[in-house]
Amino acid sequence: MKMTKADLVEQIAYKTGIEKAIVLTTIETFMKSVKNSLEKGENVYLRGFGSFVVKTRASKIGRNISKNTAVQIPAHNIPAFKPAKVFTEGVKSKVAVK
Predict the structure, then answer these.
(1) pLDDT 10s digits, 69-81
(2) Which CATH number fits domain 5-94: 1.10.290.10, 3.40.50.880, 4.10.520.10, 3.30.300.20?
(3) Which of 28, 52, 70, 83 has its CB 3.0 to 4.6 Å from that of 87, i.e. a possible disulfide?
(4) 34 and 58 in contact (C-beta within 8 Å)?
(5) How crowded is residue 9: how many other Cβ atoms within 10 Å of its Cβ?
(6) Nearest CA to 56 among 35, 75, 73?
């Protein structure tokens, strides 16, 4: 099962009665705001939902298997999402284990 951005827009528009175009603009603005904040190194905290955070990966040595050489991978930042405890517990109780 999956939900796309279009599915999310449709569901929010249906539940709120707001036009799909306005909902789409709102969702895209939210995503851009989160992205811009993370690019600036600012974490985004949404109480009861989770946190969008910037994690720093340490430098390490990788391997190029085809050339059998070592490659230095520099330290870098990556975006991450940490769900809130309430969020995690809700998913655990609702999703069936396959």
Answers:
(1) 999 999 999 999 9
(2) 4.10.520.10
(3) 83
(4) no
(5) 20
(6) 75
